[in-house]
Every structure is written in C-alpha cells, then in structure tokens.
Specification:
The two termini are 21 Å apart. The protein folds into two domains: 214 residues, Malonyl-Coenzyme A Acyl Carrier Protein, domain 2; 63 residues, Malonyl-CoA ACP transacylase, ACP-binding (Alpha-Beta Plaits, 2-Layer Sandwich), CATH 3.30.70.250. The longest helix has 21 residues. The strands form two sheets. Strands 8-7-2-1-9-10 form a six-stranded mixed β-sheet, with helices on both faces. The protein contains twelve helices and ten strands. Helix 1 runs antiparallel to helix 4, helix 1 crosses helix 6 and helix 4 runs antiparallel to helix 6. It is an alpha/beta fold. 47% of the residues lie in helices and 16% in strands.
Length: 293
C-alpha cells in the first residue's frame, strides 16, 4: 500500500516549486494563490532569499502550495491508500485527498500562520530537539517542571522536540542532558508551537475551521494529535483544532501506517526530511519523493 506524506515548516528552500510553474494547471493555481494572499508568493518561492522565505506569513503558505500543487499536477498518478502530514503538512494532505478545496485550505493556512505569529508575540517561547533519550524519560522530566514545557514533536525513535516558555525549555534541557540525552539543542523558531502557549492561536483558528466545509477524503488521513486514521469530517475538524496545542505524533503515525499495510512512503513537497524519519521507524519500507513526470 502507498502512503503519501506531506512536510511541515522548515522544509522551505529558495527555488521551491519553480519547476512546476511550466505546467498549465500549476501556473493557474500559483496565480490563484497570489490573488488570495494579496502578494506574489510565487516570486518569493522561486527566487526569494532564505530570509524572506523564513517569514511565517510566507513559510507556511509556500510549503503548502508546493505540496498541494505537486499533488494536483500528478493527476491520475496520485493514488494514495492513506495520507498524513507533519504539523502544517496535515492541511496539505487534506487538500490533496479532496477533503478541503484548494482555496479553503490556503485560507486556513494563512489564518493559521497569522494566529501563530500573534501567539508567539504574546509570550517569548521556544522549542528544543532532544536526541538519544526514550520518549518516556522526556515526558517524565517535562512533567516534573513547574514552568510550561511539553513534548511537541515525536519525530522518530530517539528524537523528540519539546516546546514551552524560555525558562521551561532551559530547565528541561539541563535536566534532560543530565539524564543522558546525546544532545539538547534549542531551535531557531519563533515560539512554542504545539504547546499550551498556542491557546490564543487555537481559539482564533477554531472559528475559521468551524466555518470551513470539510468533506470525506478519498482515503484515510492519519492525524497528528492521535496518529489514528479517519475519513469522518467531524473528527477531522476536531483533530485539526486540537493540533495547534497538541503534540505531533509522527513516530506513532508512521508506525500505525506501516502496521496498517503501508509498504511505500512518497513525500510530496519540498525536502526529504519525512522520508528520513520514516526510515528511522522502519528500514523495510520504501521511501521516495513525488516528482512530476
């Protein structure tokens, strides 16, 4: 069975999606996106600087557009048995699997980026990657700290990203290093994504999600918050709303997809980070990047 997976923030690079623009359908979708966004995001994607691409109001829509437009251009070759996306990638997965329209998906991603940016400005916060410790140890140490700090991204066995207030992250990094972590590396991010500090963003995005029409996707989507498959629009909405403050359970998602019969994982969008994470879960499965023929 074939699983299609969609990357999240951090996968962007200058020149992303440029090769797609030659395709008439891709060109039409890029121009539609420029119109909806109100500036030529395609120009920034194709020839912008790393600095321009790093701005939240650019990064999230850019990765979404690269992924979704590539999936649309694949046409009949895009035949997923199951889909999943990492954080922002969940929106790309939903549009590609026909649960959300292109326009609605893009508007939600813009609303999400803006809401997250605002939440980041309310309280200084950050994230850190913890390498070489069992998930249970990280969970236990975070739970014992008074400041806000929680497991945020279960990326693969031995790699868990934590998220929280500056003091919470500092204390956790110190304690996790003492507990035997190979590395506790603070990340260059704007805030504490997938933590309780994103509550203001969640409230804002919830209203937008509830107003949006979500249909049954063409195949099950494995969602971040519980790593379980669903095709039910009400459940999809609920899980999307919970996603901003909930953890991304990518390790569990890949594990469950493999247990349910996935033998091949195709990454749709910029980069190949997710393929590497899936390989850490199982060396047996095939991984590749989606390419336009």
């Amino acid at each position: 069975m074939k699983a299609y997976i969609f990357p999240g923030q951090g996968a962007q690079f200058s020149g992303m999606g440029k090769d797609l623009y030659e395709n008439p359908l891709a060109k039409e979708l890029f121009e539609k996106a420029n119109e909806i966004i109100g500036f030529r995001i395609s120009d920034i994607m194709f020839s912008g600087t790393d600095e321009e691409l790093k701005q939240t109001n650019v990064t999230q829509p850019a990765i979404f557009l690269h992924s979704v437009i590539l999936a649309k251009v694949l046409g009949d070759d895009f035949k997923p048995d199951m889909v999943a996306g990492h954080s922002l990638g969940e929106f790309s997965a939903l549009v590609s699997a026909n649960a959300l329209s292109f326009e609605d998906g893009l508007r939600l991603v813009i609303a999400r980026a803006n809401a997250m940016q605002k939440a980041c400005e309310i309280q200084p916060s950050t994230m850190a990657a913890i390498l070489g410790l069992a998930d249970e140890v990280v969970e236990e140490i975070c739970a014992g700290i008074d400041a806000v700090v929680v497991p945020a991204n279960y990326n693969c066995p031995g790699q868990l990203v934590i998220s929280g207030s500056i003091e919470g992250i500092d204390e956790a990094c110190e304690k996790l290093t003492a507990a035997g972590a190979k590395r506790a590396l603070k990340l260059n991010v704007g805030g504490a994504f997938h933590s309780p500090l994103m509550e203001p963003a969640k409230v804002e995005l919830q209203a937008a999600i509830e107003r949006t029409n979500i249909l049954s996707p063409i195949c099950p989507i494995y969602q971040n918050v519980n790593a379980k498959p669903t095709t039910d629009p009400a459940t999809i909405k609920e899980n999307l709303i919970a996603q901003l403050t909930g953890a991304v359970r990518w390790t569990q998602t890949a594990t469950n997809m493999i247990a349910d019969g996935a033998t091949e994982f195709v990454e749709v969008g910029p980069g190949n980070v997710l393929q590497g994470l899936v390989k850490k879960v199982s060396r047996e499965v095939q991984t590749s990047s989606a390419t336009m023929l």
